[in-house]
C-alpha cells in the first residue's frame, strides 16, 4: 500500500473523509502522517482519533518557507512517503517541496480551476455571480493552484446561497472527490505527461 502524508491547516474534515475510506478498506493505502502549521488546528485531534502521527510546526520560528520545508522533506523521505495530499493546507509551497514530489503531491481546491484560485475560492465564485462552481483535485506545481488537473466535481450555485450553504455543498463534493482520486493513485491508475493527466482502467 502507498504511504500518504496529509498536509492541513484547519478543521481537517477532508482528512477525516480520507481516513474513513482508508479505515474501511475502500482505499488501499496507509496515512502515515499529518503535517500541520497550526498547533490549535482541529485536524490534529482528528489525526489522534485515527492514531495517525502528527508533525506540527510554527512557520514564524523559521527564517524562511524553504527552511521549514527542508525539515519536512527530510521527514517525508525518512518515512518513505509516496504521496502528499494537501487538504486545506493554507500555505504556498516552494521548489524545496515541489521538486522532489512533483507528480506525487496533490491539492484539493474549493472551485473549478482555473477559476477562482488562491484563498476563499467559495466566496470568490459567489461574489463573481458564477452559476456553477465546484471542487478540483490537481497536482501541485510551483504556482498557486495552477498544476495539472486530475478531477473536478461541479456544484450548482443557487440564488439563495451564502458562503456557509455553498461552502457546505462544496465540501460534500470534496469528501467524494478527494478519496476517489487518492484511490485511483493508490491503484496506480493516474499518469501524468506534461499537463495531461490520464486515468487508466
Ligand atoms: C477545503 O474545503 C479545501 O478545499 C480548502 O480548505 C478546506 C479545508 O477544509 N482549501 C483551500 O481553500 C486551499 N486554497 P478541511 O480542513 O475541513 O478539510
TrEMBL record:
One of its GO terms (biological process) is 'de novo' IMP biosynthetic process. The keyword Transferase applies. The active site is at 109 (proton donor). It catalyses: N(1)-(5-phospho-beta-D-ribosyl)glycinamide + (6R)-10-formyltetrahydrofolate = N(2)-formyl-N(1)-(5-phospho-beta-D-ribosyl)glycinamide + (6S)-5,6,7,8-tetrahydrofolate + H(+). The record marks 145 as: Raises pKa of active site His. (6R)-10-formyltetrahydrofolate binds at residues 65, 90-93, 107. One of its GO terms (molecular function) is phosphoribosylglycinamide formyltransferase activity. Keywords: Purine biosynthesis, Transferase. InterPro entries: Formyl_transf_N, Formyl_transf_N_sf, GART. Pathway: Purine metabolism; IMP biosynthesis via de novo pathway; N(2)-formyl-N(1)-(5-phospho-D-ribosyl)glycinamide from N(1)-(5-phospho-D-ribosyl)glycinamide (10-formyl THF route): step 1/1. Its EC number is 2.1.2.2. SUPFAM superfamilies: Formyltransferase. Residues 3-182 form the Formyl transferase N-terminal domain. The keyword Protein biosynthesis does not apply. Belongs to the GART family. Catalyzes the transfer of a formyl group from 10-formyltetrahydrofolate to 5-phospho-ribosyl-glycinamide (GAR), producing 5-phospho-ribosyl-N-formylglycinamide (FGAR) and tetrahydrofolate. This is Phosphoribosylglycinamide formyltransferase. It comes from Cohnella abietis. The gene is purN.
Amino acid at each position: 500500500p502507498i504511504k500518504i502524508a496529509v498536509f492541513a491547516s484547519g478543521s481537517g474534515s477532508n482528512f477525516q473523509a480520507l481516513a474513513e475510506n482508508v479505515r474501511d478498506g475502500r482505499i488501499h493505502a496507509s496515512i502515515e502522517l499529518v503535517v500541520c502549521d497550526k498547533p490549535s488546528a482541529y485536524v490534529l485531534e482528528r489525526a489522534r482519533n485515527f492514531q495517525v502521527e502528527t508533525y506540527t510546526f510554527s512557520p514564524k520560528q523559521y527564517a524562511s518557507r524553504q527552511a521549514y520545508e527542508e525539515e519536512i522533506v527530510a521527514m517525508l523521505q525518512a518515512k518513505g512517503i509516496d504521496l502528499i495530499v494537501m487538504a486545506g493546507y493554507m500555505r504556498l509551497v516552494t521548489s524545496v517541496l515541489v521538486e522532489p514530489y512533483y507528480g506525487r503531491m496533490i491539492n484539493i481546491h474549493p472551485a473549478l480551476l482555473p477559476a477562482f484560485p488562491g484563498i476563499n475560492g467559495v466566496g470568490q465564485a459567489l461574489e463573481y455571480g458564477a452559476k456553477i462552481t465546484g471542487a478540483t483535485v490537481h497536482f501541485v506545481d510551483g504556482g498557486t493552484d495552477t498544476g495539472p488537473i486530475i478531477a473536478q466535481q461541479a456544484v450548482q450555485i443557487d440564488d439563495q446561497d451564502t458562503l456557509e450553504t455553498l461552502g457546505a455543498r462544496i465540501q460534500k463534493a470534496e469528501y467524494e472527490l478527494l478519496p476517489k482520486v487518492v484511490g485511483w493513485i493508490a491503484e496506480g491508475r493516474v499518469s501524468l505527461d506534461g499537463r495531461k493527466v490520464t486515468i487508466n482502467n
